[in-house]
Amino acid sequence: MKNYCLTLFLFVSFLSLAQNNHIVKTEDGRRVLLKSDYTWEYIDAESTKGNVAKNELTTATEKDACKVDDDFKEPDLNSRIQSQLKKGRATIDYVKAKVAKDYACDVNDVLLLSFSEQKEKAVYDFCANGKKVTYKRTGHTIIESGKLF
């Protein structure tokens, strides 16, 4: 009985591992499903109606755009936490420099909109090149929210 169960378990696990479909992202941002039989297909198929796609694109960019008043003042961060982060180069100045580098703009053009900060972790919302972006800090590691690498 044990041999039968073990054989059945190995057979089921072999079948699940044999199906190796992969999802990759192209340079233009579209996702492609690479199938195990050497075929592929787009996951995010473009809409056949150009007007509908154009309207969806404009509403998406309007949501991403950050609109800041002329008299906007950045919120003040906790000076105690910022002084502790100096050793690991994770202060707000370093985070702003990383955002400016990632979005090819000047550090003075990056505005801090909001934040949630603790000593161990933080979430920062910025406006860079007219686009609202979110960065996370875990310890001394700074990464854009939603990215793994």
Q: What characteristic shape results from the CA principal axes?
A: elongated
Strand order of the largest sheet: 4-5-6-7
Helix proportion range: 25-40%
Could you tell me the mean pLDDT? Answer: 79
| Biggest sheet descriptor | 4 strands, antiparallel
Number of helices: 4
What is the end-to-end distance? Answer: 47 Å
* Topology, number of strands: 7
- Structural Rg: 23 Å
| Structural class by SSE content | alpha+beta
Describe this structure as you would to a colleague.
The protein folds into 2 domains: about 1-65, no CATH class; about 80-145, no CATH class. The chain has 4 helices and 7 strands. It has helices spanning about 1-20, 50-65, 80-85, 90-100; strands at about 20-25, 30-35, 40, 110-115, 120-130, 130-140, 140-145. The strands form 2 sheets. It has a 4-stranded antiparallel β-sheet with strand order 4-5-6-7, with helices on one face. It is elongated.
How would you summarize what this structure contains?
About 11% of the residues have low confidence. This protein is 33% helix and 26% strand.
